[in-house]
Amino acid sequence: MINRWITFAACMVVGGGLGWVTAANDGFGPGLVLGAFVWLMLDSFYLGRLLRWLRAEQNNDTPAVLVGPAPAMRGIWGEVVDRTRRLLKNRDQQNQESQTRLDEFLAAMQASPSGVVLLDAQGRIEWCNQMATQHFGFDAQRDVLQHIANLVREPAFRAYMASGNFSHDVVIPGNASTPARPVKLSVHVHSYGKGRKLLLSRDITAVELAEAMRRDFVANVSHEIRTPLTVLAGFIETLQTLPLKEPERVRYLTLMAQQSQRMQTLVSDLLTLSRLEGSPFPDTNEWMTTSALFAQCEQEARALSVVLAPQGHQLEFDAGPACEIAGVQTELYSAMSNLVTNAVRYTPEGGQVRVSWTLHPDGRGEFQVKDKGPGIAPEHLPRLTERFYRIDRSRSRETGGTGLGLAIVKHVAQRHGAELHIESQPGHGSCFSIVFPAARVRRSHAA
Ligand code: ADP
User: Fold this and answer.
1) What's the burial of 327, exposed, middle or buried (CB within 10 Å: 0-12/13-18/19+)?
2) In angstroms, what is the span from residue 408 Cα to ligand 1's centroid?
3) Is 405 a pocket residue for ligand 1 (Cβ < 6 Å)?
4) How far is the centre of ligand 1, averaged over its atoms, from the C-alpha of 390 (Å)?
5) Which end of the chain is more exposed for a tag (fewer CB within 10 A), N or C?
6) The domain 208-279 is classified under which CATH number: 3.30.2420.10, 1.10.287.130, 3.40.50.720, 1.10.8.590?
């Protein structure tokens, strides 16, 4: 500050001195005024430079970088420039840090598996992430400041927003929902700040589907067990209350044995399924020969054929090239035997059933069961591997079916990296095959 006074005094002295020298006493006064004027001009010049620089800074689009070097000035203006420059730099640094934090926060919200929508106090969209655009069909740019109730017109959602009670969520159809492929969203609003709202959406289609499947499964199992149980209870009551003759007693006991066998098979299939779902995928350390698996299947098929049809079936077993398959022996046998016994069970007496093993040129191995049974209509094919899905219920029950056989086959195939193919035409028989990947098939060492 002292420098400023000194400069002012110097200007006055020089002005006064010049006035004195040029016009003695008359020139001294105007000289002083001229000196003050020159000082003022000089000061205004510095102030102008500073203002120009500050204005340019204010209009700067990239606040992280100063628009140009600060004007070089001395004295008090130099200090003002220096302090302003430091203040600007600090402000820009803080801005940059806040921007980085905001970007990181928004990136985290973008990465969220839930849809996130920020609403202002009027319920207008301020920001939404990518997932929310998919869930509701918003446009992240175009729909900013649009009222959410104008964009999501689902009555349940509008009622939820209007109620102001956000203690629970609301389930509505998603943007991509169609009658064939329904999509369900769980939407939950949380209030924050001054009337603002955070809307979270979650795709719960899979959860709802799993829940529906669980309900169906429990209902099916209960139904399957209740039927033989009811029959058993009836026979027990009859045996307890009526004085039966020996042949009648034997007949009832045989029927009771059949019903309990049916329950045992069902429980055993259920346990197999739960084991398949709960155990890790089989590795490729254990190898078993296809000939051993074939022998077991053949034995079972011939025994079943005799029980079901006095005339039997035309059973052909072609074990093909001697090979080995890597996997779990009990699982592989269970899958193959299910296909073979199904063919025997659904093919009428005297019908042909052909079981074969082929090694493809690319190293894959195919286990195939072909029958000349009734065949399956195309509309049933995609659902055959669902649990308890049956086309011919009475035939299935009569022949000891549980409705779980093909579900087990599908699971076993998936666990061994294999594919289950089903081809069938009503009236022309069916062909079920499991194609094992080359990594799980090799020529037998013994061969
Ligand atoms: P199930 O114990 O009833 O046989 P599966 O899961 O093994 O149950 O089979 C499902 C349904 O697929 C059967 O109920 C039957 O209607 C049909 N099916 C399976 N294999 C054959 C076949 N070889 N020929 C005709 N229909 C079949």
Assistant:
1) buried
2) 12
3) yes
4) 6
5) N
6) 1.10.287.130
